[in-house]
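Final report, closing paragraph on structural work. Over the funding period we assembled a curated collection of sequence-structure pairs, and we close with a single example.
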Amino acid sequence: MNKPNLIWGVICLVIAGGLAVANLTLPPEDLMFQVGDQNMPWVPPVVLAILGFILLANSNQKGEEKMDEQTKVEKAVDPEKAAINKRFESVGWGLFLIMLGGFMFIPDTTVSKGFWSIGIGLIFLGLNAVRYLNGIRMSGFTTFLGILSLLGGIVQLLGWKSMDGAFFLIILGAYLILKPWFEKRQLFGKAEQSRP
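Its predicted structure, as stored:
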């Protein structure tokens, strides 16, 4: 049992519960949490509740055993996979820069901002899909950016501009919840190391 995770998980849930009760009983103007120009006092309790549940879920896992230098096994770097990944990254970042230049060049009246965000999200997610199909570990950073950009573009097209922060928190929370699953399957990591 991981006691620090258990203790901090309970603390986060207690604070989240207290803030939720305060949100339900106090008038909206008494609690302030500004996101842009809007008061969203429900954001801290939601974030703390998600964090508390994640910590509690991870409290049952055994602490990582310390490994001495002799028992550590270095994963071999595959130079062929490194070269393929570098080529994929070059193409992906090249497409990203073309999209960014197009966004600056073409006025908003011609193409909505949401379509540019969706395009960038598809580029990043496509890059990681190609990595996955070639047995290369995906990048958590570009996967996260791709999902965020794709959902952000959809939100912009629907006209829900005040919801951008909420979607960011939802995606971040979902990633933290699913992180043990990703680590178990070793989907993310250094691209030079092949997936099992």
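The two ends are 28 Å apart (CA to CA). The chain has two domains: 3-58, 79-169. We thank the funder for supporting this effort.
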